[in-house]
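Why run this: before we spend reagent on co-expression, it is cheaper to look at a predicted model of the complex and decide which construct boundaries make sense. The entries below are exactly what would go into the expression plan.
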Amino acid sequence: AQKITQTQPGMFVQEKEAVTLDCTYDTSDPSYGLFWYKQPSSGEMIFLIYQGSYDQQNATEGRYSLNFQKARKSANLVISASQLGDSAMYFCAMREVHSGGSNYKLTFGKGTLLTVNP
Amino acid sequence: DSGVTQTPKHLITATGQRVTLRCSPRSGDLSVYWYQQSLDQGLQFLIHYYNGEERAKGNILERFSAQQFPDLHSELNLSSLELGDSALYFCASSVEEREVSYNEQFFGPGTRLTVL
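The model came back. Tokens follow.
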């Protein structure tokens, strides 16, 4: 079963508009972290925002905010005031913390390609 | 710039060959993770090293191996290469291993491997 699901292969948004990229996850661990990364066409992975499973408030980083709905197991990324430079692939990822475990790999979704139109 | 370096940036080789990808983590980071990004498999975890010791393996083929050296740099060795090994290989480093969910992984720029 997929642990991270991004149902939108592609999204379009007008410059200066807000856009929401969807992410749902599946885990039985009570402690986990959710990350969003941006991958422009140049290929590098850029960290955007993090949300911990115990965090009471939704994370925000500048124009990025994370709409965390724990009961629904969703962690949607909201980009406000889109810019042309936001055009990129966006990945949602989860880091599970197993008590006594030693592997903290990230599990990624398949990504959403965001295109910002002028 | 994440502070993680990877060399080479691009690598073109033939089937059956062997290559070595190199990663230098951020200063002070003890953990190194290797990921493979391909069109059909997406981004997949390969292997994790912490302070020189292998901690976990993911979907890593037996033809692939890795190690982390005392200076904490890591190498990923890919042998008997096949066309399907063509991918973008990332390493990522994080400051330390703890039982907390937040240890941001800083990604290197990746090595793009093309097997012809």
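The mean pLDDT of chain B is 92. Chain B touches chain A at residues 2, 31, 33, 35, 42-45, 48, 50, 55-56, 58, 88, 90, 92, 94, 97, 99-107, 109-110, 112 (CB under 8 Å). Bring this page to Monday's planning discussion.
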